[in-house]
Amino acid sequence: MIHPVRQRKIRLMMVALALILLAAFVVSVATGYASLSPARLWSTLIGQGTAKERLILFEFRLPRIFIAILAGAGLALSGALLQSVTRNPLADPGILGINAGAGLAVVCYMLYFPADPGSLVFLLPVFAFLGGTMAAVLIYVLSWRRGEGADPTKLVLVGVGIAAACSGAILTLASSLEREQYDFFAQWMAGKIWGDDQIFVLALLPWLLIGFPVAWAKSRVLNTLSLHEHVSAELGVPLERERILAVLIAVALASASVSVGGGIAFIGLMAPHIARSLVGPRHQILLPAAALIGAILLLVADTIGRVLLDSVGIPAGLVVSVIGAPYFMYLMARK
Amino acid sequence: MTSMIKERTDEKKVRSRAAVGVAALLAGTVLLAVSLALAVSFGAADYDLRSVWRSIFGYDPARQADQVIVGIRLPRELGAALVGAAFSVSGAIMQGMTRNPLADPGLLGLNAGAGFALACVFAFVPGATYLTAMVGAFAGAGLGAAMVFGLGSLTRGGMSPVRITLAGAAVSALLTALGEGIALMHKLSQSLTFWTAGGVSGTNWLQLQLITPVVLGGVLVAVLMSRSVTILSFGEEVATGLGQRTFLTKTVLMLVVLLLAGTAVSVVGMIAFVGLMIPHIVRFIVGTDYRWIIPCCAVFGGAFMVLADTAARLVNAPFETPVGGLIALLGVPFFLYLARKKGRML
User: Fold this and answer.
1) Domain spans of chain A?
2) For residue range B181-224, what is the model confidence (pLDDT) as tens digits?
3) Is the domain covering A4-334 a CATH 1.10.3470.10 domain?
4) Confidence (pTM)
5) Domains by residue range for chain B, with CATH
6) Interface touch A168/B325, C-beta < 8 Å
7) Cis peptide before A238 (omega within 30 of 0)
8) Does A90 touch chain B (CB under 8 A)?
């Protein structure tokens, strides 16, 4: 049982996180090329804005903001799951090469189908999922040693290698893209949130609506999985099956997020760590907290990138890397 | 491979095979010459070897073939050879010096640092000459290396190969992101794409005049100091015990590594894995004596890069495939093999 005082603290923390996300949302809506004050935001939301305000809000900004929130939450959940399953605090879908695998599948998709919203956009996350799964299987098989299982450190090392291989393949394939497609693709690789159309929100939403509850329902199992291997076996958890299920969910969430949100690393690393230091290691509360933090991080990063330069815009993935890489280094130095 | 490692770590014995070394060096030189000749003769328009010979040794600007061969292909392939040599030798020195089988200028943040510095130079120094870019790349490689090794030595438990590789991944991610950000802000991404993808296509005689002395000088210093690298590869204590001034030696070697890697990146962009693969292959052939490893790395690395660049030109002709991508596809299985094979050592 958790101590009541601690429980109240955790509850407060969750409310605070939700409020921060709301504040980030309001700020993100309000800022940009054409600003929209919070007061106008409300009246536009309830349907009393001018045509221009409605256009800015519903057509341009809201879809992109929702994608940032969803992709951030998806990546954070994926990172939290991977960290528990591999018992490696440095696990992250970006570092492990799952994003790169999904990216490779997306490039193949783009080579054969034009990036035309509406036609086959729902297939995109599926393709990404296949690519991500292949990368994950490859990493798991290659870091497997008979009698010892998959060594957590080796997992990350092999992941770095797979990520490099996929990036190499992506570069090679991308060179045969058309010039326009290549520019678009380069921005996607850098982690620019490109789906600013409602349909992309709809393509991404089901993955989270399914992935999050399933993961959350498995909280108790995840709690034991993150303990030592022998402990969880003795507690009667069917290890391999649960582990594979958790990894599959993690891959699905990461791939879907990447297919719409672009190559964003480090969110999956940072969010779970911050969540753990705020609310502790129990997955029942850790998973929602990590999702909230991931959403906040990506939304803020995207807003910074969008506002910093009106004309070009810095891809959110770059902003996240500049914040996230030093954090990764800090984690390494501390461990 | 494993037995060799065992011998190296357990018995501290050098396997110097002079006969094999000389043979490998000769074979490598021949291979380099042949691949250069092939690379120059094949392309969008094929020329036979006789006309290549005639163009190089009896250059006539009026002939179109001579312009293609001497003006475009020869500098490009010579550049590839120099870059391959530079990457391989710097990888060999790093592997010997840090006793890290996964050391490679691309994996340890040097290339990303150089790329970041290039982005800065192009963004903030309008009208930068090639020399400025080269000096910048050198400084950037130093920055990357300093960050990786600084981070590695901060961690408790010391600089294990895995930690250093991870630190390299993090530093590379950071510097690449910063470089890309600067490039985007200054609308340089088009001209920098070439650098991130990697390629020798733009090499000209002017660049060659600048990089040739640097690379050859760096390789020469490396060859002269190869004995010290062998001794360092036994471990710091042994080296000190044998009367080596390890700090001085390491500093000089590190400078050579930075010079070679920085110069190579300024020509060809971020290409990883050449510096990882070639030294391992060479070590497999000539044993663990760096007096043979380093010169062999120079010729084999050069030949490898020339062949890779030719393959990149021909695979999807008339389009060029980024040679960096091609090499990564070859290099990663190798990396995984090493990570698996030597996993217990790490």
Assistant:
1) 4-334
2) 887 777 665 555 555 555 666 677 877 888 899 899 999 999 99
3) yes
4) 0.77
5) 2-341 (1.10.3470.10)
6) yes
7) no
8) yes
